[in-house]
Amino acid sequence: MSPRRAVITGLGVVAPTGIGVTGHWEATLAGECRISPVRDFDASALPVRLAGQVDGFEPAEFVENRLAVQTDRWTWLALAATQLGFVDAALDPAKEDPFQLSVVTASASGGNAFGQREIQALWQEGPRQVSAYQSIGWFYAASSGQISIRHKLKGACGVLVADAAGAVEALASARRQIGRGLAAVVTGGTEAPLSPYALACQTSQGTLSGETDPARAYRPFAGDATGHVPGEGGAILVVEELAHARRRGAPQVYAEVAGTASTHDAFHVTDAAPDHTQLARAIRLALERAGAGPGDIGAVFADGAGVPALDRLEAAALREVFGARGVPVAVPKTMTGRLCSGGAALDLAWAAQALSTGIIPPSVNLAGRDDLDLVTGPREAPGLTAALVVARGAGGFNSAAVLRRFDA
Amino acid sequence: MRRVAVTGIGVVAPGGPSREEFWQRIVDGKPAIRRISAFEPSGYRSQIAAEIDFDPARYGLTPRETRRMDRFVQFAVACADEALADSGIEPADRDRVGVSLGSAVGATITLEDEYVVASDHGRDWVVDHRHAMPFLYQALVPSSAAAELSVRYGARGPAAVVSTGCTSGIDALGHALQLIQDGEADVMIAGAADAPISPITVACFDAIRATTPSNDDPEQASRPFDNDRRGFVLGEGAAVLVLEELEHARARGADIYCEVSGYAARANGFHMTGLRPDGFELGVAIADALDQATLNPDDIGYISAHGSGTKQNDRHETAAYKRALGDAARDVPISSIKSVVGHSLGAIGSIEMAACALVIDRGVIPPTANLHTPDPECDLDYTPLVAREARVDHVLSAGSGFGGFQSALVFSRAGAS
């Protein structure tokens, strides 16, 4: 690999746990479950009633009206997270060579509410009523494009789709671009999948939880898990070349991006793999590329599907690599629901903060398990030097990333 | 740095439902554009498109598969089958085979069709999910297309969909190139597919007047670089290339079309749809791609243009070539096959790269159809109307898309660089 080292110098979080990394981390450590009844419409006819929602998000605080009308909520969340990430990193893109900066986001479902509104206009009122912004608001590249334009990021930009594993793919791509000469790449992802049609599309998976009690709806690794709760939001990370971060005096380095890997089950487009071979291989490859052994990993941020068959595969993969109860396993997304493209991005942000603070964030609503050391309350881990993020996408995508504590 | 070869090609394009039929079509310069048949286009500003008469059975797709797969996925599978058969590859280690598929708009046809049913023709904002088809999530999230390919070929390496709008087809190949260069895969099934000829897509381009309103004479309507051009013609299709680490390809005695010698992407950071006339960022991308290929501007023997046929694109692009190539821009033959197969959004970048590989292989440069009266501001050699024979060692392809993305890719005859 390239000797150019990629480090995380800024975190921009817009998630059910909070807007901005400080409030998000406080809510995280407090173990506040932010899963609640679907807010924007009457979901009583749907087989899913609960979602992780970003409360108190005022688009106008982050997106001027002219731009807000051109974009979906998904892009507002991404623009907000990017702005917060740059502020957190104290990186002003206007002071950098624009060709040395870029954005690579994960994207999965695009501008859902925007697209639904315009298709409705087309079918109810005719083609002349479709917005001039439909062509730029709905498609999967909208967030990367708008982020690039707003901040003048002119290096190699990207958009990767790998369902809920996408943000790890995006991080890997960001690292490749740093290796090829860029100074900083903003990466991660957001999702806004709670509009009526997007939710209807998700019901076809059969993996959404029908529970109406937020404390019982999304309990990955529980024997009686009932599926998952969808959520909105995500995170944008500022990934920077180490020497560049040092030169400009970056206020902090949360962690180093030490290794990433991805594999595919190549089994079935909807069904779970018959075994955990490819998931375990992704984890081992990421460790190998990070130059780390299982004993070096002090925390795993699990994918946590919440579907018993998928949870069993993940637990088996973790047992195979780390041994039974061989590593602390955190599923903080039990507080937010699964954010698809935003989910792995938020896990990367949690992992980065765990490494910089020495505290592993909690999983909520979970009981202990004999074979997994589930982190059910905030856990002090002063010796934490490396963390693993595991992410899976529907259809067989497996990704893993190792972040390492940065000791200046 | 590990080098990357192209060892297989599959194409499904308008008027060219296979690699060889596609090649013949673009060499003949015979536009495959007609009044839209996918739906009744009366009431739309642009009523024409480059459509494929796609028969899934011809490609061995079962009824079960066609129910599950959106049209763009069917295109991708048909192309990947052809490309893999062409490459003759039987990889020993499928852990080292990955998938990189570009698509700008994914399964819009399925999403719109199912929406119309579930919402009672748009009457209900809160749609009735019980009317939704079983595979609707796979339509919502287009990475399902990459999963289809990984499953079909047992490819257990990295897989993703690349969705950078109209540069997706170049960027998906670039993504695959970088994965092989960095040792994360030895073989990548790489390309792009789009099937955007649906009411919502046609309406959204109508709304910004990006597509041509010249409905009366469809075959004459896609006119890149011509003074009478009035916008692009929407198309559909796919191309898949087998990219393979060079030594891996040589070791198995593969026929090598060419090497992927340089890739670069930039963004204009300016506007989602607007282009500055100076072509600056596209020029930077082209110069970087040449640099990676260690080529001089006059080494390039052919340029496959983005050439969408919008007023602003063709001038922007002309400026970018002059900026990046200097005097050599005046001597190199350039053409836009969008004049024949239309603009299939994310797919077209890979279709054009398939054409580029065939240009090196066959020694023929396909023409720009309908280029009768050049725009005085598009004053380069855009190979009007008639194909030319030429030995070409290095080809450049450029792409430009919504979001401000600008990409360039260089293919070189194996051993020529």
Number of helices of chain A: 12
Sheet with most strands of chain A: 12 strands, mixed
Oligomer: heterodimer
Largest sheet geometry of chain B = 10 strands, mixed
Percentage of residues in helical conformation of chain B: 25-40%
The number of distinct helices of chain B, counting runs of at least 4 residues, comes to 13
Distance between the termini of chain B: 14 Å
State the secondary-structure class of chain B.
alpha/beta
CATH superfamily of the largest domain in chain B: Thiolase/Chalcone synthase
Mean pLDDT rating of chain B: 97
Q: How are the strands of the largest sheet of chain B arranged? A: 5-4-6-7-1-8-14-13-9-10
| CATH architecture assignment of the largest domain in chain A | 3-Layer(aba) Sandwich
Protein name (chain B): Beta-ketoacyl-ACP synthase II
EC number (chain B): 2.3.1.179
GO molecular function (chain B): 3-oxoacyl-[acyl-carrier-protein] synthase activity
InterPro entries (chain B): Beta-ketoacyl_synthase, Ketoacyl_synth_AS, Ketoacyl_synth_C, Ketoacyl_synth_N, PKS_Beta-ketoAc_synthase_dom, Thiolase-like
Describe this structure in words.
The complex is a heterodimer of chains A (408) and B (417). By secondary structure, chain A is of the alpha/beta class. Chain A has 2 domains: 6-247, Peroxisomal Thiolase, Chain A, domain 1 (3-Layer(aba) Sandwich), CATH 3.40.47; 260-404, Thiolase/Chalcone synthase (Peroxisomal Thiolase, Chain A, domain 1). Chain A contains 12 helices and 16 strands. In chain A, helix 3 packs across helix 6 and helix 10 crosses helix 11. Chain B has 417 residues and is of the alpha/beta class. Chain B folds into 2 domains: 4-251, Peroxisomal Thiolase, Chain A, domain 1 (3-Layer(aba) Sandwich), CATH 3.40.47; 261-412, Thiolase/Chalcone synthase (Peroxisomal Thiolase, Chain A, domain 1). A 10-stranded mixed β-sheet of chain B has the order 5-4-6-7-1-8-14-13-9-10, sandwiched between helices. Chain B has a two-stranded antiparallel ribbon with strand order 2-3. A two-stranded antiparallel ribbon of chain B has the order 11-12. In chain B, helix 11 links the parallel strand 9 and strand 10. At the A-B interface, helix 4, helix 5, helix 6, strand 6 and helix 7 of A face helix 4, helix 5, helix 6, strand 5 and helix 7 of B. Strand 6 of chain A pairs antiparallel with strand 5 of chain B, so a sheet runs across the interface.
